């Protein structure tokens, strides 16, 4: 089994501060990590839920995937992050099984992780992010 756990569920939001405030008031959630990922044009706030995270994310520029998602679909679940021990191995397995890689090779992600995205057209309508924790 290449998947070790659900790393995170990403929710795209228009107003990151409002989303953080809502989760704090509704669930007592506290942000444990916050980062702007310039390469992807996103800002994220991570809330730990057990061994996983809820990733609240918004676009920082109009051409970012999150901004485009928000325009087309509105707020809501954007993708699911699957934690793996070896991102390259998991990506190769997905492609071999008929999946469609967005990232041809793993790349740096937030929190010092290594990531690769898999297109929803090859994974039953769900955008998947493979996440390898730093060693």
Automatic annotation (TrEMBL):
Keywords: Metal-binding. It comes from marine metagenome. Pfam families: Glyoxalase_4. InterPro entries: Glyas_Bleomycin-R_OHBP_Dase (IPR029068), MeMalonyl-CoA_epimerase (IPR017515), MMCE/EMCE_epimerase (IPR051785), VOC_core (IPR037523). This is VOC domain-containing protein. The keyword Metal-binding applies. Residues 5-133 form the VOC domain. GO terms for molecular function: metal ion binding; methylmalonyl-CoA epimerase activity. Belongs to the methylmalonyl-CoA epimerase family. GO terms for biological process: L-methylmalonyl-CoA metabolic process. Gene3D superfamilies: 2,3-Dihydroxybiphenyl 1,2-Dioxygenase, domain 1.
